[in-house]
Amino acid sequence: MSSVISTDPGIDQLAQIAVKTAKELIDESAPNLKRYDKASRKRFTRLFVDPKAISVTVSLTDEVMRIASAKDAVRILRKAARDEVLQGLDCLIPLA
């Protein structure tokens, strides 16, 4: 992006409060994390290491999760994953 989009300064404080509250909740829940929770968090984090993985993540959240048909959702997600070379998704989705 070449330019920054300005936001309403009236909500800036609200955003800071929301971020602070989210961090507090994450910190508070950390002692309760199970081993599989930590592994899942690592897999999810890997999706954002590779910039190309972001497009598949957007496809997953924006397109796939809104589709009522599981068959159509799988088709769209597989196509998105095939279109990108990813580090993170290979452990989540078996590509056929």
Task: Outline the fold blueprint.
Layout: H1 12-29, H2 35-46, H3 51-63, H4 70-82
Keywords:
96 residues, mainly alpha, 4 helices
Largest sheet: none
First-to-last CA distance: 35 Å
> What would you call the shape?
extended
- The helicity comes to 55-70%
Q: What is the count of β-strands?
A: 0
- Sheet-strand content, in percent, reads under 5%
Given helix and strand content, the structural type is mainly alpha
Quickly count the helices: 4
Query: What is the alpha-carbon Rg in Å?
Result: 17 Å
Tell me the quaternary state.
Answer: single chain
Q: How would you state the average pLDDT, rounded?
A: 76
Output the helix-strand order: HHHH
> Would you identify the regions where 5 or more consecutive residues have pLDDT less than 50?
none
Please characterize this protein's 3D structure:
The chain has 96 residues and is mostly helical. The protein has a domain of 63 residues. The longest helix has 18 residues.
Q: Could you give a short description of this structure?
A:
The chain has a domain at 34-96. The protein has 96 residues and is mainly alpha-helical. The protein has helices at residues 12-29, 35-46, 51-63, 70-82.
